């Protein structure tokens, strides 16, 4: 990456992008500030002027991830809750395909022991995501578009579980492009599971 004069905010954003790019091909736990600096063509000292610690870099990555994913989901609007659910599913999958370094970072953060600011942000992301998802499922249920006895919390977990399973499959095979094709087929099975009335 060619060095150029950047504002503090631009440098922080570039650092987040560098970490996500490196995590696509490296174990996030093994990424060092030296690697990040090398990728950005800056010294570690320059990096630490913007992020006093490595943990603050991970917190910034998690904050960016939460904001970007939720922003994509919040753009989903339709008079039909089932169409909204599908658009939300597709937006989530597309986000992961576009940023393949994100899943390893999230899974790695969840494995850390104890509480960290990054893990707290991840938990907040999942809570806010869950509220949006449950709201769409409840709307679909109220409109009679899914089975009247649908367990909303379980349906929400199942929705996320399908995406997480797709992510794990793509990580094992090293083929993230298959996620888009498989997502349509899996979402149709999901609709069948919640008794969707098309």
UniProtKB/TrEMBL annotation:
Q: Does the keyword Hydrolase apply?
A: no
InterPro entries on file: Homeodomain-like_sf, HTH-type_TetR-like_transc_reg, HTH_TetR, Tet_transcr_reg_TetR-rel_C_sf
PROSITE patterns the record matches = HTH_TETR_2
Q: Provide this UniProt record's keywords sorted from A to Z.
A: DNA-binding, Transcription, Transcription regulation
Q: Where is the HTH tetR-type domain?
A: 9-69
Name any one GO molecular function. Answer: DNA-binding transcription factor activity
Residue spans binding DNA: 32-51
- Know the name of this protein? TetR family transcriptional regulator
Q: Which organism is it from?
A: Qipengyuania algicida
